[in-house]
Amino acid sequence: MKKILPIACSALVFSITVCAQEQFENPGFEVWEDILASEQDTIREPVDWSSLKTSDNSQLSSLAPDVCTRSSSSHTGNYSLELTNVQSFVVANGVATNGRMHPNINTTLSYMFTDTVDDQWHTPFTARPDSLVGWFNYSPQELDTMQIKVVLHQGFGKQPDPDYTMNWIAMAEFRSPQNTEGEWLRFSVPFSYFKDENPEYVLAVLNSGAGYQAVAGSVLLLDDLEMIYNSPQSVDSRSFSEHGLIYAVDSRQLVLKDLDHTLYHAVWVHDITGKQVWKGSLRSNKVDISSANLVPGLYLVNLQGESEVFAQKILLY
After folding, report:
1. Spatial separation of the C-alpha atoms in residues 307 and 317, rounded to whole Å
2. Does any domain span residue 2?
3. I want to staple 304 with a disulfide (CB 3.0 to 4.6 A). Which of 31, 49, 266, 281 is the partner?
4. Which residues of 250-264 are buried (b: 16+ CB within 10 A; e: fewer)?
């Protein structure tokens, strides 16, 4: 939940922000607060982030398990964010957002949203970053997949969003089924821009499981989220991170441009539902994916290394 700063402090923070590149609030999850979720339930959330326990449906919040906790295992600092999929009457996905959650018994009707009216549940953001980086430590169960999705938008915004995507300015998305074996890995994912306009808000959704197919017991630790700024973005430019980009020659071959392939050892390809459709080794800057027999469409490519992960959406022709 967002803390409301005193006016003097807010003015100071604003003046600092104007001079610096815009970032998430509490991106290292160092600051936490105790919240009275109900008469019998006190929970802890990272400041400026929220969970199922502080959703806009108090009845469901009181019944929901606590899937968002503080971990003393961190990449830097004292703490990180720990998200855990918990078996309840359904599998409750470990999820956190810098907006607010709208849960529903029918999970397909649940979503996270930016409340533009209430300062507690939105994060103003007017910049156009190049990419999002961070550190994760993931222990998935079975074929589960962690997910991070960040949307820069104007006006009202939500995720998942069949209704308000016209408000989206850009999106960055990272998914990985990789068990990091207790180690911290760095991920990097570019923003894809849809409009040559500045956003008003940023909405992030962090998941320890694959959405509606989450598996109980998967645990995700996240730390040190950071927006990277390198060059102006436009809808006509190809999205890239600070390292480079991946592009498809056709449905049979991927090419790494300005990416050091020796930093990575494996390539995973997922379809837009998060299903893994191909996995292979990385030995050069060219990847033969012809054996996957993929149909034309949008896919997410993950490069996996010992200490770094890169992800990017590609369009196969």
Report:
1. 32
2. no
3. 266
4. ebeebebeebebebb
